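User: Sequence recovery, please. Input:
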């Protein structure tokens, strides 16, 4: 009277249809050997999420079709196992007469975001996603057309017990109608395949929304989720199952691949659900694992052998170093200290100390001779002019040039160390500390940088070294060290004030008047809003970075560089 189900919470690679198909096939064989009667894979698992404008290439869709055929063929011998596979599909395969087209000036969405139900060598059902998100990082209406139909399929246990599953894809489950229609069509439970990007608090938000959905239709709900990093977005897994009253009955581990087993057992007119429940984790723990996964997958999936970063003795580079070592191991991380005439002795000491604690390669390149050479070259041009940010930026750009030279010579990617507070206000140097290939903490404000550093010193989640960040790095006032006795707060409001204004204005779209009305000093608000506005040109030229808030400076921040609008 039991129907075992397996969720393939796996890390797929965009565009690697053959590799993704092999992962699905291997998962199906493992699940079948464990006795599973249903295997769920995440949304668009066959091609990876999100493939963006690859969806507009006919050859890409052809390759997806071929990969699906391979999965059908290779799982045909797994008797009694139903496999749900997410993939794009041309509506022409479902609706006669559809003619998708792409021209030079217009692209007509010509695909379904679909899932096919496979059973013993046959595609028994194909369901098209009905609700297409077009907000935050989502842009699905650019590529897909909405489906109209309902899909309910049967899964039969070894003893003949039957479970009728209503299939939904991600956004469908956030709306009433698809689930209600699945129940009306006879579903005993909802199975939802997903690719929902991580941001702080999103896991709890998902579970709460799905609790409401399960209670609304009084059906159990199985939520199969993707894991992995894809460019700026991260998927954390954390698949789960709820009963018909919305109570949590199982939760998979976060930020790790797993084949998560659960079982439905008939109890009179209801279902008993058995599964393990992984505990929820703190905000800092989730953020740390998201950043680590983002670095690991960006570096690994793009084939970089190693990473390097400028280690300054400051908090930002210290945090990025700790994340990089947790993601890649000490042997794939190289640090370079590049002191200038304004670098304090304690910065040298703390940088060396941290590199030694984590066991990474550490080198020092004195930039003073280069700085003097630049000043000499520009002396005639700058005659009679006082030193200002020009000389500060020269130092940052020398460092950027040296790091990029090492990157070119040895093949490693440069990790930049700028945080969200700096990206927002332009407190960073174009072609200087912004030079690099991946911006690890681009979406982490300064106050959160300190919290994460303190969390990492209390925890060692990847067994790479306890207490890696010297305490003085965390407690000393932040400074770019580009002029004598420089402190960040010489130019910016205190970070607790700055970050609160950024959150309200940039993330939540509050007006300056609203922010001031809540007790912030008008001059601070005016300064921060102005800096956000005038530094858009810098952000457009910054490296891609990991998104961990509900709005980062990336795909979900689309502001014009040239604009006369004043908030």
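Assistant: Recovered sequence (567 residues):
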């Amino acid at each position: 009277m039991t129907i075992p189900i397996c969720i393939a919470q796996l890390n797929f690679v965009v565009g690697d249809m053959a590799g993704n198909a092999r992962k699905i096939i291997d998962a199906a064989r493992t699940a079948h050997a464990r006795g599973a009667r249903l295997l769920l894979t995440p949304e668009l698992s066959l091609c990876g999420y999100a493939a963006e404008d690859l969806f507009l290439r006919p050859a890409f869709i052809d390759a997806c079709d071929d990969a699906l055929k391979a999965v059908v063929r290779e799982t045909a011998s797994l008797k009694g196992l139903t496999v749900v596979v997410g993939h794009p599909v041309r509506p022409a395969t479902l609706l006669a007469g559809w003619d998708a087209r792409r021209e030079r000036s217009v692209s007509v969405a010509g695909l379904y975001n679909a899932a096919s139900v496979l059973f013993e060598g046959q595609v028994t059902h194909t369901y098209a996603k009905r609700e297409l998100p077009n907000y935050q990082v989502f842009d699905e209406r650019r590529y897909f057309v909405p489906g109209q139909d309902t899909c309910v399929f049967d899964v039969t246990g070894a003893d003949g017990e039957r479970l009728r599953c209503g299939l939904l894809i991600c956004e469908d489950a956030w709306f009433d109608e698809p689930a209600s229609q699945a129940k009306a069509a006879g579903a005993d439970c909802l199975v939802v395949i997903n690719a929902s990007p991580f941001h702080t608090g999103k896991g709890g938000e998902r579970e709460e929304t799905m609790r409401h959905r399960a209670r609304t239709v009084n059906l159990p709900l199985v939520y199969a989720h993707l894991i992995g990093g894809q460019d700026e977005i991260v998927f954390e897994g954390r698949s789960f199952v709820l009963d018909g009253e919305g109570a949590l009955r199982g939760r998979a581990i976060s930020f790790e691949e797993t084949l998560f087993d659960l079982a439905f057992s008939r109890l009179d007119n209801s279902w008993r659900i058995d599964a393990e429940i992984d505990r929820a984790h703190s905000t800092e723990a989730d953020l740390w694992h998201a950043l680590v996964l983002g670095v690991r997958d960006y570096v690994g999936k793009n084939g970089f052998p190693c990473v390097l970063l400028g280690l300054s003795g400051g908090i930002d580079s210290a945090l990025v170093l700790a994340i990089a070592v947790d993601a890649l191991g000490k042997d794939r991380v190289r640090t370079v200290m590049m002191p200038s005439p304004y670098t304090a002795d304690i910065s040298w000491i703390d940088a060396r100390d941290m590199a030694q604690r984590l066991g990474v390669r550490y080198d020092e390149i004195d930039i003073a001779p280069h700085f003097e050479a630049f000043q000499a070259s520009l002396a005639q041009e700058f005659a009679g002019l006082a030193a200002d940010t020009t000389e500060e930026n020269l130092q940052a750009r020398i460092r950027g040039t040296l790091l990029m030279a090492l990157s070119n010579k040895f093949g490693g990617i440069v990790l930049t160390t700028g945080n969200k507070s700096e990206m927002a206000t332009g407190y960073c140097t174009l072609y200087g500390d912004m030079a690099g290939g991946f911006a690890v903490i681009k979406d982490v404000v300064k106050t959160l940088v300190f919290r994460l550093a303190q969390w990492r010193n209390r925890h060692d989640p990847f067994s790479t070294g306890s207490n890696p960040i010297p305490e003085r790095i965390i407690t000393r006032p932040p400074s770019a060290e580009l002029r004598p006795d420089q402190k960040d707060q010489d130019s910016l409001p205190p970070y607790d004030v700055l970050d609160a204004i950024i959150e309200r204005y940039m993330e939540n779209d509050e007006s300056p008047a609203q922010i001031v009305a809540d007790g912030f000093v008008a001059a601070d608000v005016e300064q921060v809003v102005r800096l956000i506005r005038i530094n858009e040109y810098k952000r457009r030229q910054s490296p891609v970075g990991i998104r961990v808030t509900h709005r980062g400076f990336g795909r979900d921040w689309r502001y014009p560089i040239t604009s006369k609008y004043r908030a």
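The mean pLDDT is 93.
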